[in-house]
Amino acid sequence: MIMQIRPIITALRRHRLATLLIAMEIALACAVLCNACFLIMGREQRMKLNSGVDESSLAIVQLTGFDNAMARDLNARMLSGLAAIDRVQSVSVINTVPFGPQAGANGMSLDPAMKQINAVIDFYLGGPSSFQSLGLKLVAGRLPQASDYVSLSNVLPSSAQVWITRSLADHLWPGADPLGKEFWSGGHYRVAGVLEHLAIAQPGSRGQYSVDWSVFVPAQPGPFLTGSYLLRARPQDISHVLRDVRAAVAKVAPDTVLDMDDSKTISEFRYAYFENDRAMARVLVGVIAALLLVTALGIVGLASFWVQQRRKQIGIRRAIGATRGDILRYFQTENFLIVTMGIVFGVLLAYALNVMLMKAYEVTHLPAAYVATSAIVLWLLGQLAVLGPALRAAAVPPVVATRSV
């Protein structure tokens, strides 16, 4: 094979334009394949986001059209009415859930004067039993006690014991024990516990590093915490429970409107939230398949054209002793060199495209593993694509070949 490389290169120089076009097509395929696979895997990882709550067992019921002056009465009616639904395990008041409506986002600071904003966080305001209903996992500190549930005179309490995520704690106090630490965000808060995870309501809204920057605040239901109710049931029952909610609301709170768009299971919220990511992944898979198909057809077409042009040359080589295997290896080696040249340009183009994506979107540097995998795929594709024309070339009898002009 090594001895064949020099004559192959000499032959390719006589067909510079065709060789260059195929190589550039392979370069484009390599660049797109690397970055498209990288983006698809990024979307897959994003969709596997750990929300920190027991999604399969939870649903939220959202009401509108009520008078806040009647909040305490409404909360009492709804808590008792929803708890009476068959198979409901618990009901609590909460302002939002992961993948649900945005609520409680605010800047926070380690400085009482808030001269510097250290992070933008989501506040989860939850009434009694909401912490347990969510299924939050405590990794440090203590569980909320009855005395921790503060009354709200505004959308956020003026002072409270709070539970923050480990990700947020590492950001605010890297390497330090966050328990007992203080921060300010329209009020004064002290960390009483650390949660393993609790995703913000809209995890992709503020960058991939802040998806877990959440704070749970135990709060008493009232005018500033009403109309949104967390239901917990067994995973196999939660959908049935949610279907019974409409009748329960019509019975216990006929003066309100049930918001069906925002009354869903958490699993449904998650599915809807990542719909664009799934659509993008499907589009990229289609682009990859189409590009690989076009590239393979281009290789097949060029190889077939060259086989037809070189029938006399093939016949002469067969007549002087070249075997079918020699002819087959010749075309495979020639294709390997063209694909390799395309891959070299493709790697440079892939990293250039990755830099553009890093500037336009929040993606990281392209790992070398994607480049190596794409190169292997294109080498294999090239060898498979050229195999048919190469076999036809190797099958030409010497006598027939030498008689053709």
Automatic annotation (TrEMBL):
Q: What family is this?
A: Belongs to the ABC-4 integral membrane protein family.
- Transmembrane segments annotated in the record for this chain: 20-41, 283-307, 336-356, 368-387
Principal cellular location given in the protein's record: membrane
Which protein is depicted? ABC transporter permease
Q: Does the keyword Transmembrane apply?
A: yes
Membrane topology label: Multi-pass membrane protein
Q: Per its UniProt entry, which superkingdom is the organism in? A: Bacteria
- Coiled-coil zones: none
Localization, UniProt: Cell membrane
* Domain ABC3 transporter permease C-terminal residue range list: 287-397
InterPro entries for the chain: ABC3_permease_C, Macrolide_Exporter_MacB
Keywords noted in UniProt: Cell membrane, Membrane, Transmembrane, Transmembrane helix
